[in-house]
Design brief:
The structure is a homodimer.
Chain A (H helix, E strand, L loop, with lengths): L28 H8 L5 H12 L4 H26 L26 H22 L12 H6 L10 H6 L9 E2 L8 H13 L10 H18 L7 E5 L2 H16 L3 H4 L7 E6 L5 H8 L7 E4 L9 H13 L3 E8 L11 H11 L2 E6 L23 E4 L12 E5 L4 H6 L32 H34 L5 E3 L10 E5 L2 H4 L5 H8 L1 H12 L3 E7 L2 E7 L8 H15 L3
Parallel strand pairs in A: 1-11, 3-4, 3-5, 5-6, 6-7
Antiparallel strand pairs in A: 2-8, 7-8, 9-10, 10-12, 11-12
Helix pairs in contact in A: 2-3, 7-15, 9-11, 12-13, 18-19
Chain lengths: ~575, ~575
């Protein structure tokens, strides 16, 4: 069934349903949609088909339903063999008469609601099985125009099966494309619970448990950073870019609180510093918050992508000489491409000397704090004024889960609070200091904490440590495998600091060429071509990009708990297979 | 079972398990936790208990497990009667030996994973049943210190059952506390699928279907706003506050694009306008983006909370006379407290006359665009330059789902793009104009579109219309019921524009008092007291707040599809019951 049976013809031979047999209707958008709602996914398909029909004529509806019933009947045997375990099998249910309006809160809607959700879960668990099955594709690639043909005019023809079918299995053991990969089952259970609770982090009143969990978890994270007694402040935000934006806002509030009321005109010309390898969110924050990207000064790095502290100090002095005020330094713990860790202690020395806010962007590398073996790469992080740390990256928590942690308590509140009396009432019957809404730049805030909390509870700190150590071992394995292998060239020398392994694959046709511009121009096109072929064949996914004056190279990253050495081997074999004749 | 059987004593009388019977151990944190993991939720409880033990000694672990097995055995009958339908019943599974590390991607982890998820779903479906059951409490209130006692020291004792137990049933027919209420089952299924797909909206490459769905849905929303052919731009953001922040950023970029590179110093003194009744996110944006809250000018409103256009024009002229540049006007379509709709057409006339960006904050009221009966309240919205519209409020989409829509294409990209070559590769094999990452202030972005898309597909536009019309009918019912009823006083006269009904309840002891300061002072304390008693008894929840010079009053809002007239009647009865003797 996983292989997908071709949908049977719609012409009926014998009919077991209550509608009279009709001649095969002309193909239309519903048929196109029905064509993909086959096989194991037919049940939700029928349901949604039912929903779809409620604005259509009865004739049209019965046609669709009968067509589906036939398909269902034909696919019955092949699909029911899949489940395997009789305990998971449920009675076949006819959803052809079920409408969205029949679900709860509809009267007597309970049974249909539960049955509907169980069917959804069956589809999802089938998807999960396939995600972890190496014999399935990572993706079933289609160009935008191809998918759009099925969706044009908002005709709603694309089914939720398609959503999974044409989507990318980010949890697949061979998906290496992003910093966030993997599908943690405990985290997933946490997300399902969160969405069922459907509340937000606005006040203790409406999210008492989540608000407290957030508070406890942030404290634990601050302890791990090394701030005394875990003191300080923090909040979960919708991603690392927003967390980094918070850090700039808070730093500005610390040094120039009057900007909150009077605007940037009340401050001198402020400058910010970050590495040329840092994440672009620092630049986005400079633009958004009114500093201007020209006042973000890029720092030079060594060949491994780490900030050169002397360059920072020189640029601070230069800015001061021009009359500008150096306000904020971002040190990256785990850069996006090279996985480099800036030397935090040396940067902290300079920040202390010149009274500059030190932020550590550990969106990608913060997870290494959980590993006794690797946390030394963030030495000095306890000297930072603020830290971004995304559990949804290296720690495998489902998206989104990002924290901004602040050493000094009160700044977050001071910076963002507007004391809207109609939103936060001081005369509530409980201790309103637990209401977090006024700390945030958001109002309502999605509950990102529970899945993380549940995972931490289930795995323990040691579970995260094992995961991280394993991923770093795998990247060392890849590095050691290819560093001297024919056809590979490393982008920088030495074992990677994080799981990022950056390399060029040199096809045989380029191996003899001298180190000329022509060679680099041709090499620049190799990674995109291999990636395109990978996506077409759907076997694996890995990212590529240029960086500075370096032409396109592959950036392998490993954060997927499902990945093993065999998957690493598969990746290099696949690159060699696809790239051999370029 | 819903009533909760008291957990049986841990002392064993007869033992059916393989561990030797032991004397009852002293109560510790595990017991405290176990005490609440009883009844129908015992299965996930056992599982999590198993997870919890993996770092503990074998002795400790077997003690817990055996204790659980006993409890499970004792509760077996009472719980298995609940499901009712045999189709939903699954074989009892012993999770006492299951660890998080046994789940996928563990070898042979498939069966345990599926079983685990099915158990989670059983807990969630039980929760859903109770949510729609009026005989259950809306919440089981505990003070922060009480819940914290169970969580202190991050000992992880609080179970996921507690999370639901002590949480607030925002989908309960009698939960009226927030603008976002209700639990839409189709939307919930969409959220479960989204979290299983676990990808983000960064690029077409990793979220092809979601990226296209977002594009089509935004276009449909723009068509409904009335922009020709649905042209324009937009993006889903993490809530209305961020959507409003986008609007201010885009307006600034339109008039002063050089601020992006040079900062606010490159612009003259810019001023923004919004109603004194508007949402505080406009003020937060003024602070964050470097305008300063003093440069946000508050507009006077009529007694219904609607902006007085003449006041806007006078203040624009005054600002210009001072040499400031009026740049941005926010018109609210559905204010937070009164539910007021600012007169958009008259405001648009002024904005056109003085070349000012017009934003419509329809976070709360935007949903009314789906109703032929009520959309006239937003007449003129098609003249706005940008619109915030939160399907997660009036349209019942699960949190978070908020859109910022922009009439002019290109501004969003121009304002936010940083063209990070290492993140967005123009040499990909597909049409990269579908990559949305560089339009956003975020980098990774949660998939908020699918649940909305699925609901739209299932209900149709007409389904949303019916929901909205019904909620407005219910609020009219409440208004007509209490406007002349003894013991009630309306905060403003006339039928509400949105579902907001604002009123004071006057306890008998205050009814005879003259209109004095003392009366208002005493009245100010009534709503908080009633609310506190409501929360303690857990029967219903409704918000209160002061506004301007008005003392605390109740703000009833209805967006919950489960609410009926009987729930409205219940609310007033409950207010009268609790407030009678104050």
């Amino acid at each position: 069934c996983g292989n997908g049976t071709a949908p049977p013809s719609t012409s009926s031979t014998s009919s077991s349903h209550s509608y009279p047999p009709t001649p095969p209707p002309p193909l239309n958008c519903y048929d196109a949609w029905c064509g993909v709602a086959h096989g194991c996914t037919r049940k939700l398909g029928m349901k949604i088909c039912g929903f779809l029909q409620k604005n259509n004529s009865l004739e049209e509806r019965s046609r669709i339903v009968s067509s589906f019933k036939e398909r269902a009947a034909k696919n019955l045997l092949s699909c029911d063999n899949i489940g395997g375990d009789a305990r998971f099998r449920r009675t076949e249910t006819d959803f052809s008469n079920l409408f969205a309006r029949d679900l709860l809160p509809a009267k007597n809607g309970e049974e249909q609601t539960i049955q509907f959700l169980l069917e959804v879960v069956e589809i999802l668990t089938n998807y999960i099985r396939k995600t972890f099955d190496r014999s399935t594709k990572v993706l079933d690639f289609h160009h935008p125009h191809q998918l759009l043909e099925g969706m044009e005019g908002f005709n709603l023809e694309l089914s939720d099966q398609d959503t999974l079918k044409y989507g990318v299995r980010t949890g697949h053991p061979r998906f290496f494309n992003q910093l966030s990969t993997g599908l943690d089952i405990v985290g997933l259970a946490g997300e399902w619970l969160t969405s069922t609770a459907n509340t937000n982090m606005f006040t203790y009143e409406i999210a008492p448990v989540f608000v407290l969990m957030e508070q406890l978890t942030l404290k634990k994270m601050r302890e791990i950073i090394g701030w005394p007694d875990g003191e300080g402040d923090g909040i979960f935000s919708p991603g690392g870019a927003i967390s980094n934006m918070y850090s700039v806002m808070i730093a500005r509030y610390k040094f120039f609180p009057e900007v909150k009321t009077k605007g940037m005109a009340a401050a001198p010309r402020l400058v910010l510093f970050t590495s040329e390898h840092s994440h672009y969110s620092i630049k986005k924050a400079s633009a958004a918050l009114g500093f201007g990207t020209e006042n973000l000064i890029l720092l030079n790095t060594d060949e491994r992508g780490r900030v050169i502290p002397a360059d920072l100090e020189a640029k601070v002095i230069e800015a001061k000489q021009k009359g500008y005020v150096p306000m904020f330094v971002n040190a990256t713990a785990g850069t996006t491409v090279y996985g480099a860790f800036d030397p935090i202690n040396e940067i902290a020395d300079i920040c202390e000397k010149y009274n500059i806010w030190l932020h550590v962007d550990g969106a990608w590398g913060g997870g290494l704090l959980m590993s006794r073996k690797h946390r030394h790469k963030l030495n000095g992080v306890e000297r930072a004024n603020s830290v971004t740390w995304n559990p949804h990256k290296m720690m495998g928590v489902p998206l989104q889960c990002s924290a901004i942690l602040v050493r000094e308590r009160g700044l977050l509140q001071g910076c963002n609070s507007m004391c809207a009396g109609y939103l936060f009432q001081p005369d509530k019957q409980y201790d309103v200091t637990y209401d977090t809404g006024d700390k945030a730049i958001q109002c309502g805030r999605h509950v990102d904490i529970f899945k993380f909390w549940l995972m931490w509870k289930a795995k323990g700190t040691i579970g995260f440590e094992q995961h991280i150590d394993k991923c770093l071992d795998l990247s060392a394995y890849l590095y050691n495998k290819i560093k001297n292998r024919e056809g590979y060239e490393m982008v920088f020398n030495g074992e990677p600091q994080h799981t990022n392994v950056c390399f060029w694959y040199i096809p045989p046709s380029l191996r003899g060429l001298p180190d000329s511009e022509e060679r680099w121009e041709r090499l620049h096109k190799v990674a995109p071509k291999i990636k395109a072929m990978m996506m077409e064949s759907g076997t694996t996914m890995v990212g590529y990009q240029p960086q500075g004056d370096k032409v396109n190279f592959f950036r392998m990253v490993i954060s997927n708990p499902a990945a093993t050495r065999s998957d690493i081997d598969f990746l290099t074999e696949e690159i060699e297979r696809l790239g051999h004749d370029l």
